[in-house]
Structures are given as C-alpha cells and as structure tokens.
Write a structure and sequence with these properties.
- Helices cover 38% and strands 15% of the residues.
- It is an alpha/beta fold.
- The structure holds pyridoxal-5'-phosphate.
- Pyridoxal-5'-phosphate binds at residues 43, 110-112, 142, 144, 192, 196, 224, 226, 252, 254, 259, 264.
C-alpha cells in the first residue's frame, strides 16, 4: 500500500539526522557478525549496577505498596503523577531556593516529546501566516531538534564562535552574539546544556544573555538539561541551572538510568506549562505512570541525586579522560586536530581541521578498521548555510569499555594520520602550533 501523505505526514515519516545513520550502523553490525566492531556511536547509556539497583528497589517498593493498582490500572492526570510532581517541586525548592508549585511542572513521555510539543506550539505558521522560528542559538546541537518540527523551515540555527586553544589541541564553541537574532519572528529558543554531541556547557552568563534577548518578545527559552544537574548531573564543569521568567528547565530521566520508561520533566512558567499540557492531552493523554511512580520514590528520597553525583558523573568523566589521554598520546602533534573541551554529557567531539575527506568518508574508513563513530554533519539541525566545519567532525560516544575506547582512539589516530599523509594538499601537517 502506498497511501498519500500530507506535508506533515511526509515530514514525520522520514528519519532525520543521526537516526538515519543509526540504521546504517545497525546494518553494519548485523552484516559484520563474527567481526568485532568497537562501537563508539551509541547514545544509549550503559547499565550501571548501582543505578539498576536503585530502580529495582524503587520498583519493589511500588509493588509492595497499596498504591500499585492506582498507578497501573487507572488513567491519571495529563500533567503527571501527583507524587512525582510534588517530589520534583520539593526537591528543586530546597536545592535551588525556588518557589515552585505543582502548576510549574509537567511530566512528559520522555523529553523528546516535550520538544515536539514546544516546537509545534511555538514554532511554525501562526493563524496570520507569520513563520515563527525555533531558534537554536548555537550549532552543533542535538540532532533530534531537526525532527521535532512539523514545519522544517521553522528551525533556524546559528554558527558558533570557536574559542581555540591550538597548542593544547582543544577548543570550545561559544554562541556568536554578533550573529544571533531573537526577535518578533522567534517562537521559542532551544539548546542543550550540557550539549549532545559536543559536551559543551554554555556559561551561566551566556544563558542569561540569551534569556534576556528573548524576554522582551515573551519567547520561551527551553534549556534541554538531559545531561544537567541535579540528575543525571553529567556536567564535569560547574554550572548552575537557570530558572524563572521565560526559561523552561527541561529534564530527562533517560541518562539517569530510565530511558525505557520515557520520563521528561518541564519546569517553567505556569501558562507555558498549561499550553504544553494541552498538547500532551491531545496527543497521548499522559505519560505512563509506572515509571513516574518509581521516579517519585527515587527523587523524594534523594537517592537519585546522590547516585548521579557519586556514580553516574564520575563514570563518564573517567571515560572522557581516557579519550583525552589516548588522543594526546597517539595523535600526531603536527596535525590540526582539536578535541572539544569535555564539560559534560556522554560524548566527546573531535574536529579535524582541513580534513582531506568528508566526515561521512571518514566514518566509512573507520568502519574498515573496526571502529564506529557518528559523522558530525548529522548534528547541525537548522544550519542551512555551507560550512566546511560541518564535514570535519565526529562524535565519539563514551558508552564503551575503557579498553575499547583506548583501542578505538589509537586506531582513529593511525587512520587520521594516513588520511592527511596521502592527501595531495600540501602543508596540512604544519598548521597547528600557530
Ligand atoms: C540533548 C538531548 N535531549 C533530549 C534527548 C531525548 O531524551 P529522552 O526523550 O529520552 O528524554 C536526548 C537523547 O539522547 C538528548 O541527547
């Protein structure tokens, strides 16, 4: 059957960004049965025993409680399961000195759905046919933002400013405020902090500046804190979550060990929460309640925040250090390679300046030496202009064993050296130390 599709149907029935590459990766792994691949592509968190145990205990507690039937055998409120909303409000009020009430909180089936609601409630065409943009202040950013808008032209991203530390082979992206436009055509602003794919953490000052630019236009600023504190607390550098005014703090429990249960949490202005809640009622009524009930327990007891800082953060921070150390030891000093500062998340991001082949070709060649990474060009949703940098980066996942990461980085370094060496473009091995 080949049913006719609407514009929205056409848009939503395609895989965007990294999802398309994941299909290729899946097929590579399947076709390569018997061959050992080091898979550094996954965005799926690892199962950490302490974290699994926390969810097991929370489940046992739920099963033993009189609440169980009410949780799984009945529909609930669209806004979310009340004990979870209360646990979040109490935890955040105490932790950050806020005055949240339950009206400031919405629970969604994963945070991806939250961005879908917001992208289509605030982005796209108004009744008067004005195009409201979903502004991504800085690319690269989460590839999923490319798929959430039913009106793809509404997603608009800006090139960053590159803050270089060339002698150390490090760099960091910063928002380029001289280019960034937030105005009456902006529907909402969205960015991840810490960032998937780069591990970048926008500074508190940069975040306040973005929020202040959006404030006069009553534009919501969604800060995707899927890796932020207090859970999963995958920030390796100090950062303060920002709340209040037009800022919506958006969280996910996926990297805190519950990706299968699909729990997203939005904290923000009452009116914005109401709009998103209506969207949710129309779409799926409410988030599943089993996951919400176990999350309520782990948040109310404080166990989730503790495990995040004591187990989850050090685990991935250590993986980043292995990437960093191995690349420092094995990448030639005279090549223009730059690792993004590892400030958080579960990825590292490598920029190979003047790379003689594209990121996609590099991905294919890396597969030949048994290493799978994600080509970086998938992480520029909304950035339409040509920019050679887009084809010079790869995302390296921190979700492999220490040894796999080490071997993977050594093989990558060897291959990258060969690629620059065989290039006909001269002088590429001397750019760096400037
Ligand atoms: C930055 C970022 N935001 C949002 C999501 C979606 O998370 P979920 O829908 O599982 O909450 C992800 C998933 O990897 C992510 O990396």
């Amino acid at each position: 059957m080949d049913p006719a599709l609407t514009q929205f149907g056409d848009e939503m029935s395609r895989l965007t960004g990294v999802r398309a590459i994941m299909k290729d990766i899946k097929e590579t792994l399947r076709a390569g049965i018997g061959r050992e691949f080091i898979n550094l592509s996954a965005g799926n968190p690892l199962i950490l025993p302490e974290v699994e145990q926390l969810w097991r205990e929370s489940t046992a507690d739920l099963l033993a409680s009189s609440e169980y039937g009410n949780v799984v055998c009945r529909y609930g409120d669209s806004q979310g399961y009340q004990p979870l909303i209360e646990a979040v409000a109490e935890d955040f009020n105490r932790r950050y000195g806020l005055k949240l009430t339950d009206r400031n909180i919405l629970i969604t089936p994963g945070s991806q759905s939250l961005y879908f609601y917001a992208a289509n409630a605030f982005g796209g065409y108004t009744r008067g046919q004005q195009l409201k943009q979903i502004v991504l202040p800085l690319n690269p950013d989460y590839t999923g933002y490319g798929g959430v808008a039913m009106v793809p032209e509404s997603v608009v991203a800006y090139k960053p400013f590159l803050d270089m530390d060339a002698p150390a082979h490090r760099f960091k992206y910063r928002p380029d405020f001289s280019q960034l436009e937030i105005n009456e055509n902006t529907g909402c602003v969205l960015f991840s902090r810490p960032c998937n794919p780069t591990g970048n953490v926008l500074t508190d000052e940069e975040v306040h500046k973005i929020a202040a630019l959006a404030e006069p236009y009553q534009v919501p600023v969604l800060i995707d804190s899927a890796y932020g504190p207090p859970f999963p607390a995958l920030n390796f550098t100090d950062m303060t979550p920002v709340f209040g005014g037009n800022v919506m703090h958006c969280m996910s429990l996926s990297k805190a060990g519950l990706p299968g249960e699909r729990i997203g949490i939005a904290i923000g202005d009452e009116r914005v929460i109401q709009i998103l809640e209506c969207f949710q009622t129309n779409m799926c009524i409410h988030s599943p309640r089993y996951g919400q009930a176990i999350a309520a327990r782990a948040i109310a007891s404080g166990a989730l925040a503790d495990i995040a800082t004591e187990v989850i953060r050090p685990f991935y921070q250590n993986k980043f250090k292995i990437v960093e150390r191995t690349l420092d030891e094995s990448m030639p000093k005279d090549l223009p390679w730059f690792l993004h500062r590892g400030e958080g998340a579960i990825f590292s991001w490598l920029w190979l300046k003047d790379l003689p082949i594209t990121d996609w070709e590099l991905y294919q060649e890396l597969k030949q030496v048994g290493v799978i990474v994600v080509p970086g060009s998938s992480f520029f949703p909304g950035l339409r202009e040509e920019w050679v940098h887009k084809q010079q980066c790869v995302r390296i996942s921190l979700t492999a064993s220490d040894q796999e990461i080490e071997i993977g980085m050594i093989r990558l370094a060897e291959l990258v050296e060969q690629i620059y060496d065989r290039s006909s473009i001269s002088g590429q091995r001397s750019v760096v130390a400037s």
